[in-house]
Design goal:
alpha/beta; binds S-adenosylmethionine; binds 6-(5-methyl-2-OXO-imidazolidin-4-yl)-hexanoic acid; binds iron/sulfur cluster
Length: about 325
């Protein structure tokens, strides 16, 4: 595991001729992972829209006129129902997302702690993405049984202010640091297709690779352009850019799960197969991401059967580490 990658080294990897890059990434993938095993998560937006932030890609910012079903925090019962469906569909992890800048210590947070406890009781890995959290909030989530916290860097430090102005890169890193003070695993990655330069992709991977330890999970999202947001008109991310980004992430973050995240509805099975070859070993499944469509369980089952992929069991990694060390 290296935390001293230079930007020049990462750039050289990113620019390796594609066929060689794929081979190198697939080789690293096989050294650290079972290449047929894929971690499958489902997402639920537990509080949708009305967010104070100005993230220029997001359907949930109150600053943009978008077509989403705004709602306040769901009930614990609604969330449990959705988690049970996700489990029945084959997901081992359930991720709850809230359109908040940050968590407040109030009744809503108590309700979320209850949701975490209940989903944990279903023997699923529980994940939350709730915006910024303090160390004491992270500790409470840990006590409730949270397995992972998702908090993306989204882009490079240099490009951050072009995408989001209502918080800083340092704010993001602080939250990741607070999560690291607990046993909760870190899920952090970003988006490509925001209009960023190649240097920004490299710089984001550089920052992720300098986190010690590396995030256990690294989502690579292709921008889903949302009507009404400042990024509504952007060129589609090509399969080749997605493959390059995933392969480079796989090489510099060899042990992490690299998640082929938003954007799969735009990709055929051939394109997704290349991403799995390049080292992606995790996906979001279920017909909805947070507010946008995703391939449904049946489509993914067909893809898994076709490619010979197998969903990873809940806690398999944690158990494997307990056995090996
Ligand atoms: N509010 C919390 C936050 O910002 O951390 C959690 C929810 S937020 C929607 C989670 C992540 O989803 C974002 O950091 C971003 O990486 C991703 N995301 C949101 N909208 C997206 C879009 N249109 N296309 C691709 N990824 C998106
Ligand atoms: C992540 O990196 N991608 C997911 C999850 N973490 C929370 C969210 C993708 C959202 C795509 C746009 C939407 O559905 O609103
Ligand atoms: Fe709010 Fe998160 Fe969307 Fe930004 S990405 S507007 S913080 S919900």
């Amino acid at each position: 595991m290296r935390n001293n990658w230079t930007k020049e080294e990462i750039k050289a990897i990113y620019n390796t001729p594609l066929i060689d890059l794929l081979y190198k990434a697939a080789t690293v993938h096989r050294e650290f992972h079972n290449p047929r095993e894929v971690q499958v998560s489902s997402l639920l937006s537990i509080k949708t829209g009305g967010c104070t932030e100005d993230c220029s890609y997001c359907s949930q910012s109150a600053r943009y006129k978008t077509e989403i079903n705004v709602h306040k925090l769901l009930s614990v019962q609604e969330v449990i129902e959705s988690a049970k469906n996700a489990k029945a569909g084959g997901s081992s992890r359930f991720c709850m997302g809230a359109a908040w800048r940050e968590v407040r210590d109030n009744k809503d947070f108590d309700k979320i702690l209850e949701m975490v406890r209940e989903v944990n009781n279903l023997d699923m890995e529980v994940c939350c993405t709730l915006g910024m959290i303090t160390e004491s909030q992270a500790k409470k989530l840990e006590e409730a049984g949270l397995y992972a916290y998702n908090h993306n860097l989204d882009t490079s430090e240099e490009n951050y202010n072009n995408v989001i102005t209502t918080r800083t890169y340092e704010d993001r890193l602080n939250t990741l640091n607070n999560v690291r003070k607990t046993k909760i695993t870190v899920c952090s990655g970003g988006i490509i297709g925001l209009g960023e330069k190649e240097e920004d992709r490299i710089s984001m991977l550089y920052t992720l690779s300098h986190l010690t330890p590396h995030p256990e999970s690294v989502p690579i999202n292709a921008l889903v352009p949302i009507d009404g947001t400042p990024l509504e008109v952007q060129a589609n991310v090509t399969t080749w850019d997605m493959v390059r980004m995933i392969a480079t992430a796989r090489i510099v973050l060899p042990k992490s799960d690299v998640r082929l995240s938003a954007g799969r509805t735009q990709m055929n099975i051939e394109a997704q197969a290349l991403c799995f070859m390049a080292g992606a070993n995790s996906i979001f499944a279920g017909d909805k991401l947070l507010t946008t469509p995703n391939p449904d369980f049946d489509q993914d089952k067909m893809m898994f059967d076709l490619l010979g992929l197998l969903p990873r069991l809940a806690y398999a990694k944690q158990n494997a580490e307990a056995v090996c060390c």
